[in-house]
Design goal:
Chain lengths: 99, 136
């Protein structure tokens, strides 16, 4: 999986490929500094994300909870329908902001 | 015909599981969505075994058998770790709000949702999780 991060007040995380148990470990390392940094909004761009496992879902929840607790916001955009189905099955589509 | 993969109880071994599944998806000509759902169920079930079946023990075997008959794919995951029926685990409450929602606990729920049937048995000191998926 490829992780691209554009830092700023609005930080954009673009994921390309598969967010599985192993690649989630890589993403988790990137998330910690973002949650501690200056970002007020974090956007996850899933245009090229083709797979997500529960480890990846856990990170979405970490981002959502982390941004909310610092008074910011987190949203997802360009989520593909296969991923959307997983978000629906797990009820994540109700607790995440999805454009 | 049954194809078998043995992996050790380390997360890094998941890459071998992914490769095995990619090969099988080609053999059974699985369409992309179906292949993704099976990968997800298998990854969650096997990750569970890797993380919890053999506490403090390394170099332990996990066996994965995959076969297909009458358009029904059967995957059997076998380990000799501590006896544990993952299907008895309490299901996550999907109606909880963001604040109440625990981080984690979704893996086995996904397995049950994505597969047609999932059963567990314990015999001869082995945990045997059998998952089937209709693939027509």
């Amino acid at each position: 999986m490829k992780i691209t991060i554009e830092n700023g007040k609005e930080t954009v995380i673009s994921l390309s490929g598969q967010l599985d148990t192993l690649t989630s470990i890589d993403l988790e390392k990137e998330i910690a500094p973002i949650l501690q940094g200056e970002a007020q909004t974090v956007v996850l761009d899933g245009a090229e994300l083709t797979y997500i496992s529960s480890a990846g879902l856990r990170l979405l929840l970490t981002l959502q909870k982390g941004m909310k607790s610092k008074g910011g916001s987190f949203r997802l955009k360009n989520i593909q329908k296969e991923i959307m189905e997983i978000l629906n099955i797990t009820g994540f589509s109700h607790i995440l902001t999805i454009e | 015909m049954t194809n078998t993969l043995y992996i050790k109880n380390e997360l890094e071994q998941l890459t071998r599981l992914y490769a095995f599944l990619d090969r099988q998806a080609g053999v059974y000509k699985l369409e992309e969505l179906l292949s993704m759902q099976i990968k997800l169920a298998l990854e969650e079930a096997v990750t569970n075994v890797i993380l919890y079946a053999y506490p403090d023990k390394k170099d332990q075997d996990i066996r994965i058998d995959m076969s297909c008959e009458n358009k029904r794919l059967t995957i059997v995951i076998t380990d000799t770790g501590i006896a544990f029926n993952p299907l008895e685990r309490q299901e996550p409450d999907l109606t909880l709000s963001l604040e109440e929602r625990p981080i984690g606990g979704l893996g086995i729920f996904l397995v049950k949702q994505l597969m047609t049937e999932v059963t567990y048995s314990h015999s001869d000191g082995k945990n045997i999780l059998t998952m089937t998926k209709d693939i027509h």
